[in-house]
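Much of our argument rests on the idea that a fold can be written as discrete symbols. Part of our work consisted of pairing the sequence of a single chain with a tokenised description of its backbone. The amino acid sequence and the backbone structure tokens for this protein are reproduced below.
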Amino acid sequence: MALIRADRLVRQVLAVLLCVTLGIILIFSLSGIWDDRFAVAHILHHNFNLGLDSSVAEKFNHGLAFLAAFFLLIARLQVRSRALVFLTVLYGAIWFDDSARYHERAGEKLGRALDLPYRFGLGPQEYGELLAWAILGVILALVFLWSWAGRRGGDGGVIAPFFLCFVLLALCGIGADMLHNVMPPYLDLLMQVIEDGGEMIAVTLSAALAFGVYRNVKAYFDAMSEPSED
């Protein structure tokens, strides 16, 4: 959306959020190298652990996902757009999964209940998590189909940039997560940076984008509804 790219405040917010996100990833990465050697590095590595629920990184990521859903909800209150309803539900689900550890907890229960096997280096927990993601994916797909069936002019332009962010999130949160389980232990730090760090970057971009939509959504849809000149 050109209006967002032209919004100086949105660019500044994006720059600040990216600097904080990359700073957290860098602290985690460097402290992980010296985790066994220095007490300070161990403390930093623990408190900035990208995958630890109580860490600074996870709390920051939860906040970003919540902000993305919140700004999209406020944008929906300004204009009637089913695309914004879908995006609000999507990022609300992402926030819920991160804060409540939905796919980990549901995956554990599904793995036990269905007695899922160990195959191809993955066990009941991993297959259960994939099944949990599939259930959530079906729900989101139904909301998307509903929103697309009632789309208005401009909805595609709103969804497209968020789709790219979501692809990055899925590649890191699902693809890299599954790959992480079959990688050797000495690559654990690298895989954690790719998996959890990639997720953080995707959510950071989404939060800044949602802020931009909130600030410019009315002008955007007003422009899309104006009749074109011959």
